[in-house]
Amino acid sequence: MSNPYIILPIISQLFTAILLMFFWTQKNTQKAISVIMSLVTLGISVWLLTIVLKNGIHVTQAGSWEAPFGITFIADPLSSLMVLLTSLAGLAVSIFSVGSVRNARVRFGYFPIFHFLLMGLNGAFLTGDIFNLYVWFEIIIISSFVLITLGGEKAQIEGSIKYVTMNLLASAIFLTAIAILYGLVGSLNMADLSIKVANLENRRLVNVTAILFFVGFGIKSAVFPLHFWLPASYHTPPPAISAIFGGLLTKVGVYALLRVFTLIFVPDEFMINLISWVAGLTILTGCIGALIQNNIRKVFSYLIVGHIGYMIAGLGMFTEAALIGTVFYLIHDIIVKTNLFMVSGLIFKIKGTFSMRNLGGLYKEYPKLSLLMAIPIFSLVGIPPLSGFWAKLFWVESGFAIENFMLVAFIIAGSFLTLFVMAKLWAEVFWKDGDKLPKKINVKYFWELKPLKRTAMVFPIVFLSLISLYIGLGADHVIQLSTIIGKQLMDTTPYIEAVLGPINESQP
Amino acid sequence: MELLLVIIIGLLYAAGIYMMLRRSLVKLIIGLILLGNGANLLIFLLGRIVKGKPPIIDDASYVLAEIYADPVPQALILTAIVISFGLQAFAIILIKRAYKVVKTDDLDEMNATDEDL
Amino acid sequence: MKTIIFKTASSYLLPLLLLFAIFILLRGHYLPGGGFVGGLIAAIAFVIHSFANGIEKTRGIIKFHPGFLMPIGLALALIAAIAPLFTGGALMTGLWFENPVPVIGMVGSALFFDIGVFLVVVGVTLTIIFTISETI
Amino acid sequence: MLLSVLSGFLLAACLPVIGKQIKGNLSILLSALPVILFIYFLSFIPGVANGETYHFTYNWVPQLGINFDFHLDGLSLLFTLLITGIGSLVFIYTSSYLKGHVYLDRFYGYLAMFMSSMLGLVLSDNIITLFIFWELTSISSFFLIGFNNDSEASRKSSLLALGITGFGGLFLLAGMILLGYVTGSYSIVELMGQTELIHNHPYFVLILFLVFMGAFTKSAQFPFHFWLPGAMKAPTPVSTYLHSATMVKAGIYLLARFTPVLGNHEYWNTTLIIIGGVTMLYAAIHAVFRLDLKGILAYSTISALGVLVFLIGLGTDDALLAASVFILVHALYKATLFLVTGIIDHETGTRDVSQLSGLNKVMLPVGIAAILAAISNAGIPPSFGFLGKDLIYEATLHYGDWAIVLTVAAVLTNICLLFAGFLAGIKPFIGKLPQKYEKLHLPSPLMYIPPMILAGLGIVFGVLPMIIDSPLIKPVAAAILNTSPDFHLALWHGWSVVLLLSTITIGGGLGLYFILKPSEGLLAKATRFEPISPMSIILRCTRIFESTAKGVTYVLQNGYLRYYVIAILTFLSVLLAYKIFKGIDLYVNFGKLTEITLYEAIVLAIMAVSIVFTVFTRSRLVAVAAMGIIGYSICLIFLFYSAPDLAMTQFSIDTLTVILFVLVLYNLPKYLKLSDTGSRVRDGMLALIFGGLISLLTLEVLNEPLEREISAYYAENAYTLAKGKNVVNVILVDFRGADTMVEIIVLSIAAIGVFSLLKLRLKSIEKE
């Protein structure tokens, strides 16, 4: 059904960013605007998901040019869900930024860029046009470049060079893939592509294009062996920035993979094998990488890689149940990873370091905060019934059903390693006696901050923790939602029909 | 002509990749730019090239004449060029900043973020 | 380079080039050109001026930081893009005035959009170039 | 019912808030919860004794068929009573044991959480819910073992325990899901009806393996037993509650519960007999050499668990009956001994048996409890333990061909266990009281009454077995056997081989007790075998794994950007090459190509030369200039092939890029020749291969016909609908205006980025 207002999540973020640029020098105004507008966007996103679930897929054709001639924006359950998750994480990080981002960074455009980034994410989720997707990706890339280098510290620059290079390489590959796709079928609308690619005779070229897309998106979602930029860079910027990166950026890649490999290139046996192996090795590299790290943010970075592997594994199994699992995990992962990076920021504020060796005694000094932080930590592990657990049910069962024991083994091994890593982290950071550890100087500690700032740092963690508790304990609702999405990923006819109108059955 | 363009595109990709693999940050950025140029030419070529028929409707008529160059790839490339200009400008400035902070453009001196365990 | 001739020439060149830029902007819908190229030409006009007279002078002419052209341009483009939403149409649906305007031709939301592009491009280019020149 | 299971979680959730108020003497009030629950579950006894079972269903995730389905039968009832009963005593005991401890509230929180998880575990009919509670017990155990979190040993032990049980837990999860997949049901009751299907399914062995891994790790079976002695770092109430009476029996519960589903199969029986047998002997012998009271008890617990697994493995009616009785017997005496140990530790400050003796003189009631427990453990009549032991021998003696071997193993185990029990329960209390302990006095009754109750029950049940015979034990056996057995517990069975064996056991054990004196030397001898123990082997494996992980990560994440790029491109090239060359049919359709004119050829030649220049020049500025020429050449190509807008844009962008480069490179030093020839050749090869692949791909795409539906639409409607004549521009601002909108945003962001990158300087306080 047609509805021009589905692009409001994009517009409201863009509006916010432009507004913020007008208040370039007023840092307090900027903070207020950011939080208020994040709330507004959250409201819009809730509205969007509600109407999509109620009335089916909503579409708008930019410029009123009918598809496939203009650019289509489409809100199906998956994309509206992603928009909602972006807004949730966005609101949390916006508040967290108020407490934790230094004024110097605010004066140099932190908030506008942050909202541009969110706009880019929303755009990428809502667009129904492959080239437009590329353009949104570029927004995401450039704003993340700016955010990751904002401050210009040595570590930031070194990390960002890797980040920038890999992402530009990914863009180039993505663009190449689009070029070939256009050269083959002469269309850019994804629903249209879905039909046209399915009708192409030269399957080998289709396969090659699919590989290019896989690698392009694979770099962005950091799968093995394309993930190297992530552990090199995610721990370098300020925690608020890591939080939004860790929670959302790689997930756009996953979203794109899900979208493209269910809608345009339905995986054949070769692709399934490829995706499965990549997924398995991603889980393994990520989790063993996390095992040996000392910097807590690096631990989380590696775990991002490992857990991306899970989601790709769901795609690799390519059954409805496995995709439901992937969607469920996507919801969980965005909330929890964002939260964990904020937790790391809070820990840093309290102790002045990210190094596990030099951390300790948190449980003794801040028992209530520690219990709060335990929620995301153990949710990530998937201690049942917390949120990380449920998706595994789907994957393991699918794995058995299609006799892909390798992936089951990898998922189990990954879960175990995650459990161990997080338990170790807990023991080191929270339990260990903190009295004898070196103290950092020249840091403004948590207890020296104004109460407002402290609240701004703690509240978003509470907020997201409550959500992840809800995902875990109220799993039924989330599973219902994931099921709807999983079904639509397997059966794309409603998507295509929403964009192009009813498909004539007689056509091949 | 297509054949020559195909070779040039291959060369651009190869040169871009080769430059990316060097140790100098400046070469790395140049490599990325070459890669971008290659991709743009690729879109252009794969939209099938037509000589001397720009997609501009002449004064007298209301629609384009029969044989004309495909305007879609042109629009795409235009967008791509502008976007990559933004990214390149940023990357170029990054060289400057990196040089200021790290005092070299040797990429091998910029490994600290992977090393601290 | 900063000869008197160049200085004088550039101060005449500036308005001329700006005019040319606006011309390119407006005719873009019919002939090669458009907001983007127009913006670049305008920016180059200022850059030439600054090479001749120094950045301080050029900034004196513009009065405000060129960076502010960006939000203004973006806002203009955004308004042009979402104007149809208020009447229930889709994003970027063309809204047109009834009658053509001399020189420009048909005036519609697309033109405002192109002007937005123009402003952004000028703002961006000048910001980048000025910032670099200042920090050399 | 749901409330009764979850009440512990609720209590735990409340404690952070109200904990401070009840930290003092009020903490004993918390014991009310387990006591109430105990009474609640007692009320089920009459019904269950009559063969009824109770079922409660509360929806949770009906989508997946995962709900709180609670099923209460004899087996569950026995366990719930143990959990709440011993739980009550432990709660009471703790209020005195940890009196005034700063974190007493947290401790109670964990205990309550554990109790709830355990209740959920034994009551769940749904195997996934069962697994959820299973994992929760592991986690609460992690927190309890690590309770003294300042000590590194304590942290390590808790990690080890979580590592092992969590590892097994995931296997169990897989097993449960697989069971659900095979049978289409997550309900144990329903699974019982599908035994046939499961036994004949090709995945049966896999299911067995997975379930066994879960059970063995949790119940500390060989070779995964070693986490349990480590877990003794926890405060004694925890050892009592979790690591002897309840949690470690979860594995036993699981095996018993699944006996009607998976049991009665050759693989099932053999595996369990072997693992159980090895565990019971191995741990029993180990127990003999320990000096630390808790160490002795830990190993004897492992051994007892081995006995239980062994009995379930035997699988005969006798054996399962013996198992049912032994679960209770063991819980009673072992909990007593642990509580007593706690008291000794609390009062004397040591747990070294060789240091302890004669404590009866200062704490008689404690001594009585300990001695009674030791008697029950030894199986000396008229204790309940005697009954248990009898039944075990009964079971082994009637097990066909292997009866003798199995019986000998059981006797040997029991001898060692008896010894261990005496060492822990009797040795500290008799003999001469060392001088340093003369001033000791009796602890608070809150501490010595609980063990006395437990020990007392051990005797009462022995003398009057009918109290528990049909109300409790029979339904348990019925649940495990899935039929209604016919038997009666009795202390005296008449003269028989079993009695003889009991006598041998007691005699042997006593003999050992009088010959073997625990000493450092003995312990040292035993530790010499440490390097080949499963613990060392497994820990060594994990260390090897960790160093491999380190190695692999170092190699992969080596910090050199170019290797990352190489990895990506190699991956991509291999895949592309594989697909392109698989069934290659490259051809060039010359008819379709446009002709080459001279000036175009010249432009392309210039371009090629510039590319080479850019790559190989030694000067940055030359490279940038050559790059600029490449850009201008592209601009010309655009111009030749009908793209004036593109040409204009390319021209201005190229100029700007070059200007930027020149401004930036202004003060950079010269290129250095940084890479050696080898890597140049390698990179060159890779680059050429990749470029070549792209060229091949392009050629092949060019052969495909291109549909132009979309551009045709634009050509037709650009003027009529969009009122513009420059179609490219119309596309940019109208047809695909959204792209342009985004494009100018990209530019703005880049400008902001450039601005902040060059202007922003952080003060040192702002660097984080």
Characterization of this structure:
- The complex is a heterotetramer of chains A (508), B (117), C (136) and D (768).
- Chain A is mostly helical and 508 residues long.
- In chain A, 75% of the residues lie in helices and 2% in strands.
- Chain A has a two-stranded antiparallel sheet with strand order 1-2.
- In chain B, 66% of the residues lie in helices and 0% in strands.
- Chain B contains four helices and no strands.
- Chain B has one domain: Helix Hairpins (Orthogonal Bundle), CATH 1.10.287.
- In chain B, helix 1 runs antiparallel to helix 2 and helix 2 packs antiparallel against helix 3.
- Chain D is mainly alpha-helical and 768 residues long.
- In chain D, 72% of the residues lie in helices and 2% in strands.
- In chain D, strands 1-2 form a two-stranded antiparallel ribbon.
- In chain D, helix 18 packs antiparallel against helix 19.
- Chains A and D meet through helix 4, helix 5, helix 6, helix 7 and helix 9 of A and strand 1, helix 6, helix 7, helix 24 and helix 25 of D.
Of all chain pairs, the largest interface belongs to: A-D, 115 and 102 residues
Topology of chain B as a string of helices (H) and strands (E): HHHH
The fraction of residues assigned to DSSP E strands of chain C is under 5%
How many helices of chain C in DSSP terms? 5
Spans where pLDDT lies below 50 across 5 or more residues of chain B: none
User: Structural class of the secondary elements of chain B?
Assistant: mainly alpha
The CATH architecture category of chain B equals Orthogonal Bundle
Count of discrete structural domains of chain B: 1
**Proportion of residues in helical segments of chain B:** 55-70%
CATH class category name of chain B: Mainly Alpha
Radius of gyration of chain C: 17 Å
| Rg of chain B, alpha carbons | 20 Å
Kindly name the structural category of chain C.
mainly alpha
**How would you sum up the global shape of chain B?**
elongated
**Count of helix runs of chain B:** 4
Most strands sheet of chain B = none
- CATH fold node name of chain B: Helix Hairpins
Q: Overall mean pLDDT score of chain C? A: 80
Number of domains of chain C: 1
List keywords for this structure.
heterotetramer, B: 117 residues, mainly alpha, Helix Hairpins, 66% helix, 0% strand, elongated, D: 768 residues, 3 domains, two-stranded antiparallel sheet, 32 helices, 72% helix, 2% strand, membrane (chain B), Na+/H+ antiporter subunit C (chain B), transmembrane helix (chain B), cell membrane (chain B), transmembrane (chain B)
Task: Chart the SSEs and their pairings.
The complex is a heterotetramer of chains A (508), B (117), C (136) and D (768).
Chain A: H1 8-22, H2 27-55, E1 58-61, E2 72-75, H3 77-100, H4 103-107, H5 110-126, H6 130-149, H7 154-185, H8 190-199, H9 203-221, H10 229-233, H11 239-263, H12 269-291, H13 296-317, H14 320-351, H15 362-365, H16 367-381, H17 390-401, H18 405-431, H19 451-473, H20 475-490, H21 493-500
Chain B: H1 2-20, H2 25-46, H3 71-102, H4 112-115
Helix pairs in contact in B: 1-2, 2-3
Chain C: H1 4-27, H2 35-53, H3 55-62, H4 69-86, H5 109-135
Helix pairs in contact in C: 1-2, 2-3, 2-5, 4-5
